[in-house]
Each structure stands twice: as structure tokens, then as C-alpha cells.
Amino acid sequence: MSTLHERLTLLRVPGIGPRLYHMLADRFGSAGAVLSASRQSLRAAGLGSQVIDALRQPDQAAVEADLAWADAPGNHVLDLEDPRYPQLLRTMVDPPPMLFVSGDPDALSAPQLAIVGSRSPSSGGRQNAHDFARHLARSGLTITSGLALGIDTAAHEGALAGDGPTVAVTATGPDRVYPAANRRLAHAIAAQGAVVTEFPTGTPVRAGQFPRRNRVISGLCAGTLVVEAGLRSGSLITARYALEQGREVFAIPGSIHNPLARGCHALIRDGSAKLVETARDIMEELPALLGVNMDIDEAGDLKPEQQASGTDNDSDSDHEAVLEALGHDPVAMDFLLQRTGLTPAALSSILLILELQGRVTAMPGGRYARTGLRI
Predict the structure, then answer these.
(1) What is the pTM of this model?
(2) SS3 category, 360
(3) Under a CB-based contact definition with an 8 Å cutoff, are residues 129 and 151 in contact?
(4) Which of 218, 283, 326, 371 could form a disulfide with 241 if both were Cys (CB 3.0 to 4.6 A apart)?
(5) Residue 326: φ, ψ to 5°
(6) Which domains are assigned to the chain?
(7) Full strand arrangement of the beta sheet holding 142-145
(8) Crossing angle of helices 333-340 and 344-356, rounded to 10°
(9) What is the pLDDT of residues 141-156, one digit of tens each?
(10) Is the pLDDT of residue 199 over 90?
């Protein structure tokens, strides 16, 4: 049995990723045995001279920084032998050898749904991510995402608003927050869930680390919901990993005029993702072993007592007339004035109220569209 110091030392050797780490630990029996193995044995295991030299001269100062971080309150380092290491992640091919966790490590083993999407979403996409996350968190799911701006941020904030746990998987060391604008959000997530990374302390932002982060996001979760994504979005990488891991993939469709809907449409069109309109669409597909009960009615909507106050305006015929006139593609004020017969002042007031309720989205160019949200 190797020590934490030895495992961290092996983890930090340049050129040793998860696959090689596991191969060496299996071949030699432990991380400590790898570190003390002869050059001849290491060459026989397929290591080149540079990696062997790095094994012989480990960065002890960096390892001490990891240990110091782990000693701070609320911080944890989990390896595959730790019973708190999440089982779903353990079943992946070449799982992360170690996880650096700020917050509650048990959050990593809770039933989880990933919500991912564009860093620059539409206001409707952001609202969808927030509201789905809020209601699913209230129903017992832990919401997992990548702490990026845009959809990730909205998903984390929605879960927190629903008083549910949320997990942020990051692509840097645990002592760094990226983007810096989400530092306060990261602290809130750690207090109500967990922030987790496979990268040791001091690891800066590098583009190549984000696919590894996405792989952990999907690996932790029973399913992944893509809210808004272009055809080249990193969210599609997360969806691909989820499919490779045998997990469920869901996608919310959007307007044919919205380029951020094309990635979702592609997933739905090729059969990779299930089209999602309500929370029930998600819960019907997740494995029964999750044991999560959704408090929603037969139509798949939230029960009335769970809806935010002021969201039901069925008695107001003017409000309903505006919603009927809007549709789901952006339309201009002039069009709405013609369709509804309202005065400009009355229409502006109703649109503002509907926008505050999350039922209408203001678009560029003074246009408006319904959100189509049915959680």
C-alpha cells in the first residue's frame, strides 16, 4: 500500500497520464513500487528515458503543496481505493487516478445530471438551463457542470436556487478558479456541493485539459442535458463521452434561426439525444436505480404549488393574447401591435411582466419570443 505522498508524486510525473498511471501501478503493485523500481524494469514497462529521469527527480515542492492543500478544512484527495471515490466514475476506462475535492465528497456519489452548453447563450437558453436545474435539483438530482460562463453558470446557479447540491468539475488545479469571474460561485458550490478536479495544485488553464474535464463531467452523471450548443461546441464533446460511457444524452431544441440550437438539433437528428421539453422527458429515461422521484403532474409540468408566484396569468386575456401572438421565433413590436390590437404602452408593459416571469425573451433588434419553458 503506497502513501498519499507516493501517489501524488507518481501523479505529477510529466508524461504519466491516467492510463499509464494505472498500468504502472498494476504492473508494479503500488505507486511506491513504481518510484523505487530500477531503470531496467521501468524500460521494460515501456517508459522512455525522459519519463524515467522525471521519476528519479520528482518535484517534491509541488507534492508538498498538494499535501498542504489537502490539510486545509473542506479539502479532500480521493484515490480509487477511497470508498468516497464515485462508483460511476470508477467504471470508466482509465478513470482519474486521484480527485481533488473542495466541499462534500459524498456529493460526487449522489444521483447526478450534467447540464452543459454554450459559453455565450441566448437569454432563453440561459433561462432554460437555470430553470431545469432549479426544478431537477428540488426533485433530488445533483446538477453537475463545468463552472464555465454561460450555460454552466446558469445551471449551477439554478441548482443553488433550488436548494439542491451541485458539482463543478474544473480543468485547473483545485487552488485556482477559472474563469476568475466565477470565484464567488465556486465558493457557493463548495458550500452546497463540491468543486472537483483531477489536476493537482498549481495546474494553470490549458486548452487540452478541457476535454479531460468534460470526460469527468459525463462520467460522474447518469445523463447529460445539452441546452444550447453550436456545431463545434465543446458540449458536443461531453455528449460524445456520455454516449461512449453508456450514459443518457438529452437535448433541448431551439429555433431554426438560432445557430446555438444546431448542435442540439444534430444530436437529436442522428439519434444520439432524446428531445427534451419537460423534466419528465429526462426522468423517464434515467435508470430506475437512481430512485429519484419527480414531483410533477401527469402532463410533465410542475405542480401548481411549486410554480413561482405570479407565473400563472391565465385570467388575464391580454397577457394570453400576447403569448398567443408571439410564437417561438422572434417577432417585432409592430407585428405584435397588429396581432393584438393593444396600445404600444400596454404592450410594452405586458412584455416586461412576461419577461420578468421568464415566459418571454427579449431578443436583439427589439424583437421578442416565447421561452417555451415547461419544466
Answers:
(1) 0.79
(2) strand
(3) yes
(4) 218
(5) -70, -55
(6) 1-58 (1.10.150), 105-305 (3.40.50.450), 317-370 (1.10.10.10)
(7) 75-79, 98-103, 194-197, 166-169, 142-145, 112-116, 223-226, 248-251, 274-275
(8) 110
(9) 999 999 999 999 999 9
(10) yes
